[in-house]
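Q: How would the structure tokens look for this protein?
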Amino acid sequence: MRKKENILPASDKLGILIPGMGAVTTTLIAGIIAVKKGLAKPIGSLTQMGTIRLGKRTEKRIPMIKDFISLPGIENIIFGGWDIFDDNMYEAALHAGVLDKTLLDKIRPDLESIKPMPGVFDPDYVKRLHGTFVKKGHSKMDLADQLKQDIQQFKKANNLERLVMVWCGSTETYIESSEVHTTLKSFEKGLAENDPAIAPSMIYAYAAISEGIPYANGAPNLTVDIPALIELAKIKKVPICGKDFKTGQTLIKTILAPGFKARLLGVSGWFSTNILGNRDGEVLDEPMSFKSKEVSKLGSLEYILQPEIYPDLYKDFYHKVRINYYPPRGDNKEGWDNIDIFGWLGYPMQIKVDFLCRDSILAAPIVLDVAFFMDFAARAGMYGIQEWLSFYFKSPMVAEGLYPEHDLFIQLKKLKNTLRYLMGEDLITHLGMEYYEE
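A: Here is the predicted structure in token form.
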């Protein structure tokens, strides 16, 4: 057994700040309140319901993760955040239409007590929304300073020592990294000069990291994955991670594709289409916002299947993704996949998947887990890119020069081995030779 790392305890309260207090955020907050009141279970949350094996199988040490590492209790979470509409969490939850009104009415006073702060908004980055509750400033640096003031006031008002920030806002239009993103100096100059290549999500990330707060990006837009903010995270010794929560169709891909490769089944084509009608669907109906999502969703199969290593199985396989805005469906997203595979002697086969999922129901526990694990990383003295949290993202951030790992099962092993490593436990390799030695 190795030496345990020096990890500060998760005593007292944890503040979770969220830019974007719409469907995902209200589903999370309402869910946490419902769990605290004994009205529901935190299903889907690794930090609340997951276990971790320690040592040999014969030892039968399989504690809950929340008992193995120091995590805050959900009763100690304080929520805050920003939005471009001024609805309180009860009103926003009703508008989102994810949870039954019967449940929301049982916790209505708790939800009504949580109200957003005015958000940072630029219609050039989210063309289908028209924010009415937004900050005004003479520069993007001024807006960043206003966010810092919000953070400081929230921290003081709630007597908090620790905070994390998780972006749950809408998908921003697609942009590529440019000169203003290359260094912290050029980025801060760009903030002062209102550079159009600095998106609202980057302003939130800059404010959070400057205040020493871990930042996670739950959307596919370019945000904290730019050299300037990675540089700032290292200077401030702050954990960062992202991007784009892995919920519906991509989750299924990262479960199925590793199985095809493990059994050396070929893939000639994978066609994916979605319909959804929530605010996310409306935003993604705009072509450049969809491009941000498309780039995020297309990457996983290439990395999992590795066509350059297995050309006979995956070379030139066709991969297409479509997202269609369909208002009647609301948050209940439907994802169809047609997968053309082939096996022995090249004989073709097909797999059809129809996943009728609930986008925010799948995303809410991810937000909770990412917030808790990022707080844990900060208390363990970890900073910069947290690749061990790739399990939760479609486009995981990795160190320069590395390719991202998309295989869901490898990602989970990496996450749990990171916890074992930090807690001084032996890593699990699943070799198992010791059970058969004379």
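The chain has a mean pLDDT of 94.

The first strand starts at residue 14 and ends at 19.

Upvote if useful.
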